[in-house]
Design brief:
Radius of gyration: 31 Å
Distance between the termini: 83 Å
Shape: globular
Strand content: 5-15%
Largest sheet: 10 strands, mixed
Helix content: 25-40%
Number of strands: 19
Structural class: alpha/beta
Number of helices: 21
């Protein structure tokens, strides 16, 4: 009866914003527009009995329709039918009838648990035992066990015992079911847990479930994981010993820093983002700066090198004191994470990094657990006051696991004529699809674990660079339209011969030669384009299996603190970033001090103005100047994969741009001029370069500006 009420379904809303928004919506919709005071209740009436109860009324008038219907929502559905009739009559007598009241009354009287309750109270004692039966296994899909009778009051991460001796821990809830990851304790290398194929776990539907409420699954200590490559449950993947031994139990009374799933920190536990995190990627640090404690999305089409960009950001932290964690749960997991580990080792970055990966055939539940494990390792370092960079190469475990939960735990259908609660619900003042609201809460709660902690909690930070590939063409128009067809016709006919225009034989020989050459060039270009499309279709990339729709990408954009849109990638020029579609919502507070001193944000405007001028402006000196300025900017930001741009080198390039030393230069000339200046600076003013790298938050001083200007003196 209370399957979806507040005392059995605790939605992951740590800040209470959902309840506050829901209360405001109820009050706004059903409060009367104007009335000096509510009518008095008759002594002994049902409304008087409600007024004397211990149930809060969400701050609305006691006899208002909002209060009456909120009270009905707290009642058992066994009494809903008789109660709603009288309350609806009193509500209509108290306020003008409004559309939706009768429909709401039918929904409350329906033989289904009420889905929206604003009070945070406990049910009557005589009704608690009626909520659930004995816990048992409902279904099993690989390492994922669907449990019934557990209840959503059991926090995720709690250990459970299935059958005789099979271990597992709770991943999430979706009433009326609970989802747990099953593993074989002590069966992995060095006595570590084992999950997935070959783990020897045997669980069947109907097996009894024992909830170990005082025990949680924990990851190994953070110190034991530095430089290690581990699996979703902390098992070694690099051939070494099991880090921290094989024990994964954590008592509730102990320090929960190692818990694999934790609630996100509250508002009072955070502090503003004011310290930059230099990624070593020029386009990111200059155009979309990243602050310590920020959540940034990296998105692009398959083939845009997002994984290499994330690895490059980790490699740039060598010597900076920033702890790194890499989660290989998507395309990088096709080889079990081996390729990512080799790249990090080649870059000399494994010493300060932990890689958490899964096998290529891992289930969605295991991928989600690996994502939580990566967060847990990063949180362990943050709890000690360290700054941590977490790079996740994919969000499939988060996104697709919510779909699995909806499939394995469908909600009951409503009677005919009643709005289907599975489709539409009220969420933060909006009426939206229930599955979208549930997924958004699920994603938001996970991403809220990214934060910069207050000084009282050590002052550490967790910064996230999350990678998500979107479908091809989702953010660009299709190439090849019918605009080229006209009087000349197509370049070639069905038999491959050139289609010559009418009157071709009467034209002068010089004109015939020009037209023939133009058509042959057009035909050759069409052939090359077709061959390139065929080759692209034949070459399957690992990330092709992990693309997401545009709507889902934009949903993540609305949750994160900014996004970087990568348009193209090449081995020679690196990553081409869309200036218009990329943004950091933290802004300049997360930018490096020397770059802020040089008005770095002006570069975004210059590039966008140059692009607009190129598309819509008339020919003239201004258009030429803007085009040259844009070309010089792109040349300075050019960066080959595997190269790490120090903050000092980026400062030299931005200084040259902003002070006019690259005026009227194209991209190649600007890049060469800056590289020459950086080499000269390392030889002549090394103390300035070292100071810039050692103090990323400090502004560029006038003395150092004069020394940088000397690099470009004739």
């Amino acid at each position: 009866l209370y399957a979806r009420s507040r005392w059995t379904y605790r939605s992951p809303d740590p800040f209470g914003s959902l309840d506050r928004a829901r209360s405001r919506v109820f009050a706004r919709r059903f409060e009367p527009r104007a009335r000096s005071s509510p009518p008095k209740a008759r002594r002994g009436s049902r409304s008087e009995a409600f007024s004397n109860s211990r149930m809060p009324t969400a701050g609305v008038s006691l006899m208002s329709p909002a209060s009456l219907f909120a009270t009905v929502a707290r009642r058992s559905t066994r009494h809903a039918s008789s109660t709603v009739a009288s309350l609806t009559t009193r509500a209509r007598g108290y306020a003008p009838a409004r559309p939706g009241l009768s429909q709401l009354a039918r929904r409350l009287a329906a033989p289904r648990a009420v889905s929206t309750v604003t009070a945070d109270i406990e049910p009557p004692e005589e009704e608690v035992a009626f909520q659930r039966g004995p816990a048992s296994v409902h279904a099993v899909e690989g390492p994922l066990a669907v449990l019934s009778g557990v209840g959503a009051d059991v926090p995720p991460g709690t250990l459970v015992r299935l059958g005789d001796a099979v271990q597992g821990f709770i991943l999430s809830h979706r009433e009326p079911k609970t989802f747990a990851l099953v593993y074989a304790a002590g069966q992995g290398a060095g006595g570590a847990p084992s999950v997935g194929a070959g783990s020897g776990v045997a669980v069947s539907p109907g097996d009894a479930v024992e909830v170990l409420r005082e025990r949680h699954f924990r990851m190994p200590a953070e110190d034991d994981l530095r430089g290690r490559w581990i699996g979703a449950l902390g098992q070694p993947m690099d051939g070494g010993d099991a880090p921290g031994g094989g024990d994964r139990e954590l008592a509730c009374g102990e320090d929960l820093d190692g818990a694999i799933i934790r609630d996100p920190p509250g508002v009072e536990d955070r502090k503003p983002i004011t310290t930059p995190l230099v990624t070593g990627i020029k386009a990111l640090d200059v155009l979309t700066p990243l602050g310590r404690g920020q959540c940034m999305l990296l998105t692009g089409e398959p083939g845009t090198g997002l994984t290499r960009l994330g690895v490059g950001a980790i490699a740039a932290q060598a010597g900076s004191g920033v702890r790194c964690v890499y989660g290989a749960t998507g395309a990088a997991a096709e080889d079990g994470g081996k390729g990512a580990v080799e790249e990090l080792r080649a870059a000399g970055a494994m010493g300060h990094t932990t890689v958490v990966s899964v096998d290529g055939d891992a289930s969605l539940a295991e991928r989600y657990a690996a994502t939580c494990a990566a967060f847990s390792v990063a949180e362990g370092a943050r709890a000690k006051g360290e700054d941590v960079l977490l790079v996740l190469d994919d969000f499939t475990g988060l996104v697709e696991f919510t779909k699995d939960m909806a499939r394995l735990s469908p909600q009951l259908d409503n009677p005919e004529g009643i709005i289907d609660e599975e489709k539409m619900v009220e969420y933060e003042g909006m009426i939206i699809n229930a599955l979208l609201a549930e997924r958004r809460r699920f994603l938001g709660t996970t991403l809220q674990r990214v934060a910069r902690m207050s000084d009282a909690l050590g002052g550490g930070s967790l910064t996230l660079l999350g990678i998500m590939y979107h479908e091809k063409g989702a953010y660009r128009g299709r190439k090849g339209t019918n605009k080229d067809t006209g009087a000349v016709g197509s370049a070639e006919g069905a038999d491959g011969t050139l289609q010559l225009p009418a009157g071709f034989d009467q034209m002068a020989p010089e004109m015939q030669a020009k037209i023939t050459a133009a058509l042959e060039k057009k035909r050759d270009a069409a052939v090359k384009a077709a061959e390139a499309r065929e080759a692209e279709a034949a070459a399957k990339r690992p990330e092709d299996a992990y693309t997401q729709t545009r709507s889902l990408v934009e949903e993540f954009m609305s949750i994160t603190d900014g996004q970087v849109m990568v348009e193209n990638f090449s081995e020679s020029n690196g990553w081409g970033i869309s200036v218009k579609d990329s943004v950091s919502r933290i802004g300049t507070p997360g930018a490096a001090g020397p770059l802020k001193s040089l008005d770095m944000m002006q570069l975004r405007l210059d590039v966008m103005q140059a692009d607009d001028m190129q598309a819509f402006g008339n020919n003239g000196d201004e258009k030429v100047q803007m085009r040259n300025r844009s070309s010089a900017i792109r040349g300075v930001l050019r960066q080959r994969p595997g190269e790490t741009a120090a903050l000092s080198a980026q400062t030299v390039g931005l200084f040259a741009l902003q002070k006019g030393y690259l005026k009227n230069m194209n991209a190649d000339e600007a890049a060469a001029r800056v590289n020459e200046a950086v080499t000269k600076a390392k030889d002549t003013i090394p103390e300035v370069m070292d100071a810039l790298d050692a103090n990323p938050s400090k502004a560029l001083s006038a003395e150092n500006s004069e020394k940088l200007a000397s690099l470009f003196a004739a």
